[in-house]
Design a protein that fits this description.
Strands 1-2-3 form a three-stranded antiparallel β-sheet. It has helices at residues 10-16, 20-23, 37-48, 94-100; strands at residues 53-60, 66-77, 83-92. The longest helix is centred in the middle third of the chain and has 12 residues, at 37-48. With 101 residues, the chain is an alpha+beta fold.
């Protein structure tokens, strides 16, 4: 609800280079460049309204390169039952996206 990461696993570190120490308690690292942000912002707005979103999204690796994730974003209920957070489960599909392009 406050926009900060609560849990960061080893898979996220392998895909994005950021460690749990880099991420937990802070806003999500690896935000996409501004040109790609509208899709991500729209997806997060839908999740905040209670919808599950599945899609392919660009994020930034710690070293600055683009990483593409096939991701599922699900609302997590807060104490009042309304969406209070987001669970993101993703898979790095950067190589697949490059082959498709």
């Amino acid at each position: 609800a406050d926009g900060n990461v609560r849990v960061w696993n080893d898979g996220a570190t392998r895909a994005l280079g950021w460690t749990a120490a880099d991420a937990v308690g802070r806003p999500p690292p690896g935000r996409p460049p501004a040109t790609d942000a509208p899709d991500v912002a729209a997806a997060l707005a839908r999740v905040a309204d209670g919808a599950e979103v599945v899609g392919r999204f660009p994020v930034r690796h710690k070293d600055g390169r683009a990483v593409w994730l096939d991701a599922r974003l699900q609302p997590v209920a807060g104490p009042d039952g309304r969406p209070g957070g987001v669970l993101l489960v993703g898979r790095d599909v950067t190589a697949q996206k490059a082959a498709e392009d």
